[in-house]
Design goal:
326 residues, alpha/beta, 2 domains, six-stranded mixed β-sheet, globular
């Protein structure tokens, strides 16, 4: 190759690199899409919208919410995994990112590690263990005592196989060496309705809005999966206090991940901007009112957390013999 041709190729390479660098430094130059695998008005959707509105002001571009429902978040996850790695399509992920890949290994069309670049763990969603207000079970110990007497004599509700309510109850059954009856519903709300009516004994429910139902004497809260008692329910013991430490590690995360291969400079800009949003007092207060605990981790911290979370769920799913169909 002649020097002239060589220099031309070098020049073209430098120009291309310069163009890419300029495009990345100008990011974002168009609207960003937050992909949510759950319905409008649910906890994940609400959190995405709170973050998105403030983030749009920071970045100077609209943040659009794209709700792609179905398969316990799997439709949204697979869509995001195959999106261009340019920072304009972001998955608002929950525990289903890891859990679906474990429970449906070989059937989902993504790898939670290889196909995504972590941005930040935004919030954790602890849960309350609730029963109907007129339930004969006044404590967690009452539930366990009944479950030990006869297998499947105690039932629990959930929003479906592999969701946080299902897995938390399975964890309780595993820890107590009991067999409880899983009753899945199409959402947490209908499951709670059956718990209120006494047709289902208990469930683990995200903290969002639970206190209102307690005040109306529709449910009673027996325990919280938080590390410490909450200011909203100071009289409710933690799972650790009632004899089951470690439940605070099995939380429902709401985080942000991008398709693998997204340039580091774009990931860092997204991470720093989202974390700045999460730590604003007004935003933090809104999220707290939803029962969320703000985490706002760095990309590396979230990467490590996801790795540990995968191991937690994999062990539980194996021990409890949880299948992807109820």
């Amino acid at each position: 190759m002649s020097n002239a041709i060589w220099m031309r190729w070098v020049g073209l390479g430098m120009a291309l690199a310069s163009t890419i660098a300029l495009a990345q430094s100008d990011f974002p130059a168009k609207p960003i899409k937050f992909v949510v695998g759950y319905s409008v008005g649910g906890p994940t959707d609400v959190i995405a919208r709170i973050v998105g509105i403030d983030l749009a002001n920071t970045l100077g571009q609209p943040v659009l919410i794209d709700n792609k429902l179905g398969a316990n978040g799997n439709i949204a996850t697979e869509f995001a995994a195959s999106a261009p790695a340019d920072g304009y399509t972001i998955l608002v992920n929950t525990l289903s990112l890891n859990v679906n890949a474990i429970m449906s290994q070989g059937r989902v069309k993504y790898d939670p590690v290889k196909d995504f670049a972590p941005i930040t763990l935004a919030v954790a969603l602890p849960q309350y263990l609730i029963v109907g207000y007129d339930s004969p079970y006044k404590t967690v110990a009452d539930l366990i005592a009944k479950a030990k007497v006869a297998p499947e004599s105690v039932s629990f509700g959930s929003a479906g196989a592999g969701g946080s309510a299902h897995l938390s109850a399975a964890l309780l059954a595993t820890r107590t060496q009991t067999k409880m009856l899983h009753v899945p519903f199409k959402g947490n709300a209908p499951a709670m309705t059956e718990v209120m009516a006494g047709r289902v004994d208990f469930m683990f429910y995200p903290m969002v809005g639970v206190s209102e139902h307690e005040a109306q004497k529709q449910i009673r809260i027996l325990a919280a999966t938080t590390l410490k008692r909450t200011g909203e329910a100071p009289n409710v013991p933690t799972m650790t206090e009632v004899g089951f430490p470690g439940f605070e590690e099995y939380v429902g995360p709401v985080g942000f991940v991008a398709p693998a291969g997204t340039p580091a400079v774009i990931l860092e800009k997204l991470a720093s901007s989202i974390r700045a949003t999460l730590t604003k007092p007004t935003i933090e207060q809104k999220l707290k009112q939803l029962g969320s605990v703000v985490v706002a981790s760095s990309p590396n911290e979230y990467k490590q957390w996801l790795k540990e979370d995968h191991a937690r769920w994999a062990q539980l799913i194996k021990t409890a013999d949880i299948k992807d169909q109820p």
